Description:
Elements: E1 10-11, E2 21-23, E3 26-31, E4 36-44, E5 52-63, E6 69-72, E7 85-88, E8 91-94, E9 99-107, E10 115-127, E11 143-153, E12 160-168, E13 177-184, E14 190-199, E15 205-216, E16 221-227, E17 235-244, E18 251-259
Parallel strand pairs: 3-11
Antiparallel strand pairs: 1-11, 2-4, 4-9, 5-6, 5-8, 5-10, 7-9, 10-11, 12-13, 13-16, 14-15, 14-17, 17-18
Amino acid sequence: MRKLLPLTLLAGLALAQTGVGVSPPRALYPATPGASLTGSLVVDHPGRSGTLQVEVVLQDVLLQADGRPLYLDPGSHPRSLTRWLSVTPLVFLLQPQATQEVRYTVQVPKEAQPGTYWGVVFFESAPAGNRQGGEGLGIRIKTRVGHVVYVEVGQVTRSGRIQGFRYLPQGQEGPAQVRLVFQNTGTGLLRLKGRVEVRDAQGRPVAQGQVPETASLPGATHELPAPLDRVLPPGRYLVLAVLDYGSPSLIAGEGRIEVR
Length: 260
């Protein structure tokens, strides 16, 4: 089984001592139309006190333009896997230091078209019986962690292109960086990593950056971050980028940015 998508799927209000862990965080299965697949994972309670109640929530996920995940209701897009997914058990209790095996089944429709389909199995956990608030009204503080399931039906195509660049100065987002606008033009998931080089008006290299391993979902257009090794002074620059997605061929692009 190949490991895919280095997304950390954590959301919601969190107290460090109340969350569960999930292993593995993701899984990929090849399939043919009409196939039935089964998988399993382990949910664990790493804390040393308190019983947790855990509930399963299925959701879809897409990538926003800035590269952040957008979580949606099941069946929200054509490549949604949650329509085919069933999970057991859906609710369970976990004692401290205990584990629970969770199984799931994916039923691929006979009419499924080739390509990657995906969905997220979230596990919401909270202290059993813990509610805050007055009589008749309470707030249950939950944490959430996810297991991403990918199914590749038939032969998938993997391709993409760099559409442009923009410069993000040093600030709350971290160090100065060039952000690559990337379009996944294939039907399969891509794992991208690469490098960028920034040159001045005379063609001299002035900064470099690495694109950390990042997932790109089929059909998505989103940004890839490339933190630079130095801050760029005001001026106009040429950016050269090369991306590797595990194929013998590479994806290259160039463009210009202006730093004010």
